[in-house]
TrEMBL record, chain A:
Taxonomic source organism: Cohnella hashimotonis
Protein name listed in UniProt: ABC transporter substrate-binding protein
Domain DUF3502: residue ranges: 462-531
Keyword annotations: Signal
Signal peptide annotation: 1-22
Family matches, as PROSITE patterns: PROKAR_LIPOPROTEIN (PS51257)
Spans annotated as Disordered: 28-49
InterPro entries in the record: Bact_solute-bd_prot1, DUF3502
From TrEMBL, chain B:
Entry's family note: Belongs to the binding-protein-dependent transport system permease family.
Protein name: Carbohydrate ABC transporter permease
Species per Swiss-Prot/TrEMBL record: Cohnella hashimotonis
Compartments in which it is found: Cell membrane
Classification via InterPro entries: MetI-like, MetI-like_sf
Source lineage: Bacteria, Bacillati, Bacillota, Bacilli, Bacillales
Primary localisation category: membrane
Pfam hit, one: BPD_transp_1
Keywords: Cell membrane, Membrane, Transmembrane, Transmembrane helix, Transport
ABC transmembrane type-1 domain: residues covered: 90-284
Keyword Transport found: yes
Transmembrane segments: 25-47, 87-107, 128-151, 157-178, 199-224, 278-295
UniProtKB/TrEMBL annotation, chain C:
PROSITE patterns: ABC_TM1
Chief location of this protein within or outside the cell: membrane
Protein name: ABC transporter permease subunit
Membrane-protein topology: Multi-pass membrane protein
Length: 533, 310, 306
């Protein structure tokens, strides 16, 4: 009832404001608004540059941006509409209206169907201005297909000055596709390295050595398998992955490699100045890892039917059904916090089994915001991004909701979640991540410490900003992905009896699928990239 | 024109007084086989019902249970956390199902009737015209473009009804049923001076109740279970049908947890996904199961056409 | 002359044409107009160009499927599975419908019929979860029972050989109620006099079923089979994906076109490539149904689809 009436009020108010401003606008500024409204041109690749050009023309004077005409921006988020969307966005819009004479209306693509709807919204060229974008949501692809507006340096400097000043060049460069920028990425280096969360009480019970190496971890898993009936030593995360989370620990981190894409079997050595890529499956390291996995599988370190299990590894761990899982620091830390909150009987701890190895941070395109290619108000859209990411007040609102309702600030960089917190969470406001972010004060100290210690080890390498344009080898990538799932994944769970034969089969199939063509293309793009930079 | 319907129970096993050996053997096979089949279908559903009432922890540690050893209604309390929205979703589904089924039944039977008339020279041509659409389709994007950008059906109840109102499968099955009606009936009606539409409405429809009931059931099930059109075309909460509402709820809970990764957010509520999945099945099936026995008489008893001749 | 006879026919059939108008308009609008989108299969789709403005790229979108080396295997799997489903499902449905018609009192039939319909309501996601619960090696019910009986457990999820049987079984189980209703409706439409005549001739119940019921079901059977044949190259994605998932160990026995395409395109999400796969399925289905329909027509004109 309450929600409904508030919504009606809001709509009425909004309609009133719209009418008022429309009237006021007609006399003053009809010229510029007319040139803007005729703007969305149908022509293929000129859209982006045309709008960029005309938008700078529309502004009256250098420096000051004309915001006399009120605009309503439509933004597409990924994730469910938060229960308290109306109240929080009413606050956000009040501030935005004050500052840039614009309001935002959010449309939410639920987790259940965003993967279908997201490309569809772009393909059908629906009417919206802003859209959450991310590498895992096909950012490169959508940009290459012309879904997003190209953001030039001039535009950013003018309409998103704070983001332009605050963001590091690396972050901007990482978000470029073929040298062009299509998103304002998040401004926060987030760790993507995977860790192991395990049961410290069980380790102590069997007097096992500290888990700080792959061998120590194997010992832990085998001991649990042997002695703790009813507990699965390790449960992987389910999903459509092609290299699983343990690979990131045992293959990537352990060998100080990096992979461009976990759906392709290519890696390069972090320290390799020339950026020579190689097929992971062809390396002695991978063979060694497959042997390691086979040994674990033979000792029942995970379920025999691991490929079909849909068990949620975090739920299993929480329920004491599994003795270790892998994920990134943020997720595992959150799980630890939750277990402690609920007074879980299990003592848990994080393990880094690649101590001292070089770590890398997530590329900036992990979360970001893009402007729709056919947005009628690209300037105001950029200004809104700028504020939501860099204005303390607005940033707090969009990230954590209303002070005193959803959260309570603790100092400048922490917050305490209040009871209503679940009513404003779970959607993609992460694109506005910035140094202004607050951390949940319940987050376990050891997890934060670990991240801090990693920060010293973060390694920056020349290929950090390289982005692969796969449009010429799409066919091969589709087929290689399929082969990886069919022949690679079973090897990685030790399900193939004869490793040599399994590897030979895998590589034979990869060759047939055209892996060499991708590698050549990738290498030539890398060479060109390194020559330029 | 005495198109009387006769409720003749055609189960001969019962009508002929003394049971013969062949009937005894047959009855034994029949009862046995049907009971086994029914059990195979019933037990998994019981598993679903009982698991929906089992605590999540028990499901995770011991799997689904036929008897809820650790009873919990948590899944249902989550589903009905916003009872008004749930009721709204039920109402949308019921309304769409009733409206869509009636409209669909009318259009399907009318189309099928025209196609079933042997004296209609172009019936094969039209049949092919319809059937062809089941083989080739332009895919999702053009269809979506048409409905959203040209027909402007987004966020309207039409988007939930129109795409499902006709189905070639139903048209052709109905046509085959109507084809079984003796031509003599139509001929005699024509001699009496009835027009084609009148023959369809006043003569054929009453005669084809089993067919109408079957297609009506299929239409109703299709509407009841549809979430895909809602997924594509509805973002207004007030128009969300039940199945989509449930699908969304589960997907969001599942996805939220997955997407929280990297966000470093602390998920404060644990979601009983497993029992929730089961409870959703129960919640979505319940009303249909309750309504089904009322429709069932059309299939259980014989409603015949042959009787007209008498 | 021909035109005149055409208009004559239009006038003659005007009532039929009028009755067909809603359906014709519906399919023109919702099927034939969007069908123009088939061109996407031959294009390199970009948003600015849209369906018609994007550049042609010949048969490039088809390459991923035919170059994969798996095209033949998955196409064959798809067709074989569908043939098995058609045969087994229809046979069971007819069997159940005949029994339901002949046996039992009102309540017995009602209860049985309702029960048969239950699997239809359980989504494939839940079916997949239940199947895993029953069949997995470590704690699955089936293996727990085998162990209890002192037998060796079976590793179903790593043994492709079990899967054709399992999938046929699950498909039959899920579709039983739906199909039974259809055949039951067909049986109830059979002229009572035929049964009476058979009874007078002294036929026993088995003879009556074989001589009266089943022959009267032929039209329905043929229509349902023909309708299924058109889709013989489309795999039931929901079923295969939820039962088998991404378990590469089973693909040799379980991979169908739809799951294969889904896996190939899961990362690139390419509209053109998925359209290409769809066109491939359509063309094969079209050729098959035309051939089968032609054969049926030669045998009996009235039984054919068109």
């Amino acid at each position: 009832m309450l929600r409904k009436s508030r919504w009606t009020m809001f709509t009425l108010l909004f309609a009133f404001v719209m009418i008022m401003s429309a009237c006021g606008n007609n006399n003053k500024n009809s010229g510029s608004s007319a040139s803007q409204s005729t703007e969305p041109s149908k022509s293929a690749s000129t859209t982006a540059s045309a709008s960029a050009a005309s938008s700078s023309a529309a502004a009256p004077a250098e420096g000051a941006v004309d915001t006399s005409k009120e605009v309503k921006l439509k933004m597409i988020f990924v994730g469910p509409k938060p229960v308290d969307y109306d109240s929080v966005f009413a606050e956000i819009n009040k501030k935005l209206k004050e500052k840039i004479n614009a309001t935002i209306e959010g449309e939410f693509l639920d987790w259940s169907d965003w993967a279908q709807k997201y490309p569809l919204k772009l393909a059908a060229d629906e009417n919206f201005d802003l859209i959450y974008s991310a590498n895992w949501a096909g950012y490169n692809d959508q940009a290459l297909k012309g879904g997003f507006l190209e953001l030039t340096d001039d535009m950013l400097a003018k309409y998103a000055p704070q983001a332009w000043a605050n963001m590091s060049k690396v972050s901007w460069d990482q978000a470029k596709v073929n040298g062009k920028l299509y998103m304002v990425p998040q401004n926060r280096g987030e760790s993507v390295e995977k860790l192991i969360l395990y049961r410290e009480d069980l380790r102590k019970k069997y007097n096992l050595p500290e888990i700080n190496s792959p061998e120590a971890y194997a010992t832990y898993l085998k001991t649990i398998a042997e002695k703790e009936k009813g507990i699965v030593p390790f449960t992987p995360e389910t999903g459509d992955w092609k290299f699983h989370n343990l690979d990131r620990v045992l293959l990537k981190q352990q060998n100080e490699w990096n992979m461009f894409d976990l759906d392709m079997p290519f890696a390069f050595k972090l320290t390799d100045e020339k950026g020579q890529v190689f097929n992971v499956y062809n390396t002695p390291e991978f063979k060694q890892l497959a042997t390691y996995y086979k040994d674990l599988a033979d000792h029942n370190a995970w379920s025999k039917n691991v490929l079909n299990s849909k068990n949620d590894h975090q739920a299993d761990f929480k329920a004491g059904k599994t003795a270790s899982i892998t994920h990134n620091n943020g997720t595992l830390g959150a799980l630890m916090a939750l277990m402690r909150q609920e007074n879980s009987p299990y003592e848990v701890a994080l393990a880094d089994i690649n101590q001292g190895k070089k770590k890398s941070v997530a590329i900036s395109t992990q979360n970001g915001t893009s402007v729709h290619a056919t947005s009628k108000n690209p300037e105001r859209a950029l200004m809104a991004i700028d504020l939501l990411q860099n204005d303390k007040e607005l940033h707090d609102l969009v990230m954590y909701g209303i002070n005193g309702v959803h959260y309570e600030p603790v100092g400048d960089d922490k917050y305490k979640a209040l009871d209503k917190n679940p009513n404003y969470t779970g959607f993609s406001n992460w694109s506005f991540n910035s140094p202004l972010n607050r951390d949940n004060e319940a987050f376990p100290q050891e997890a934060s410490d670990l991240v801090k210690s990693w920060e010293a080890n973060v390694y920056h390498y020349p290929l950090e900003t390289f982005v692969f344009d796969n449009s010429k080898v799409k066919t091969e990538i589709a087929n290689v992905g399929n082969v990886m799932l069919r022949y690679g994944i079973p090897l990685e769970y030790g399900l193939v009896k004869d490793i040599d034969k399994g590897l030979a089969d895998l590589n034979k199939q990869l060759e047939a699928a055209g892996i060499a063509k991708i590698q050549t293309e990738l290498q030539s793009q890398i060479d060109a990239f390194l020559a330029k930079n | 024109m005495s198109a009387t319907e006769l409720n003749a129970d055609k189960s001969f096993a019962k009508t002929s007084g003394v049971k013969k050996t062949d009937q005894k053997i047959f009855a034994a096979i029949g009862y046995g086989a049907l009971t086994i089949m029914a059990l195979l279908c019933l037990l998994p559903f019981l598993l679903v019902v009982s698991s929906s009432l089992t605590s999540e922890n028990k499901i995770i540690t011991a799997g689904y249970q036929f008897i809820p050893t650790d009873f919990s209604v948590e899944a249902y309390s989550i589903l009905f956390k916003y009872p008004t929205e749930m009721i709204q979703a039920y109402l949308v589904t019921i309304g769409v199902t009733i409206g869509g089924t009636l409209l669909g039944l009318f259009l399907t039977s009318m189309t099928s009737y025209a196609l079933s008339r042997r004296d209609f020279k172009w019936r094969n041509g039209f049949s092919f015209f319809f059937f062809f659409t089941t083989l080739f389709s332009g895919g999702l994007v053009p269809w979506y473009l048409l409905i959203v950008n040209y027909l402007h059906m987004k966020d309207t109840v039409l988007a939930l009804i129109v795409p499902l109102v006709l189905n070639v499968f139903y048209i052709i099955v109905m046509k085959s049923f109507l084809g079984g009606i003796p031509e003599a009936i139509v001929e005699s009606a024509k001699i009496d001076g009835a027009g084609d539409f009148r023959i369809y409405a006043q003569l054929i429809l009453p005669l084809s109740k089993p067919a109408l009931a079957t297609i009506g059931l299929f239409l109703a099930l299709a509407y009841w279970n549809d979430w895909y059109n809602a997924l594509l075309f509805v973002s207004d909460e007030k128009l969300m049908p039940l199945q989509y509402y449930l699908y969304k709820m589960l997907g969001n809970m599942d996805g939220m947890r997955k997407a929280m990764m990297g966000a470093g957010a602390v998920v404060t509520t644990a979601i009983p996904t497993e029992s929730l999945k089961m409870a959703m099945t129960v919640v979505a099936t319940g009303p249909i199961l309750l309504a089904y026995p009322f429709v069932q008489r059309y299939f259980v008893q014989g409603l015949t056409i042959g009787a007209v001749k008498g | 002359m021909r035109l005149r006879s055409f208009w004559h026919d239009v006038k003659k059939y005007r009532m039929f044409l009028l009755m067909l108008t809603p359906a014709v308009v519906f399919y023109l609008l919702f099927a034939y107009i969007p069908m123009a989108g088939i061109v996407i299969a031959f294009k390199r789709y970009d948003y600015a160009g849209g369906i018609f403005g994007s550049a042609w790229n010949g048969l490039d979108n088809f390459r991923f499927f035919f170059d994969s080396g798996n095209a033949w295997q998955v196409t064959r799997n798809t067709a074989l599975y569908n043939v098995a489903f058609i045969v087994v499902n229809n046979a069971l449905q007819i069997f159940a419908a005949i029994l339901l018609f002949e046996v039992g009192g009102k309540w017995f039939r009602k209860i049985i019929q309702s029960s048969l319909f239950l699997p239809y309501f359980i989504s494939w996601v839940v079916v997949g979860a239940i199947a895993y619960n029953l069949l997995n090696y470590d704690i699955g019910t089936v293996n727990a029972m085998l162990r209890g009986l002192g037998m060796e457990p079976v590793d179903i999820y790593n043994t492709p050989a079990y899967w054709p049987f399992l999938l046929v079984l699950v498909s039959a189980w899920k579709g039983l109620g739906y199909g039974t209703v259809m055949y039951l409706a067909a049986i109830t439409s059979i002229d009572t006099e035929m049964y009476e005549a058979a009874e007078i001739d002294g036929a026993n119940i088995f003879q009556r079923i074989l001589k009266v019921t089943i022959p009267n079901l032929y039209p329905t059977i043929i229509i349902l089979v023909l309708l299924a044949v058109g889709n013989i190259f489309r795999g039931d994605f929901g079923m295969f994906y939820n039962m088998v998932g991404n378990n590469g160990m089973l693909f040799s026995a379980t991979d169908v076109i739809d799951t294969f395409v889904f896996r190939s395109l899961i990362t690139s999400n390419d509209i053109g490539m998925s359209a290409a796969a769809g066109v491939f399925q359509s063309v094969l289905g079209f050729a098959t149904i035309m051939a089968v329909n032609y054969a049926v027509r030669r045998y009996d004109k009235d039984r054919a689809l068109f």
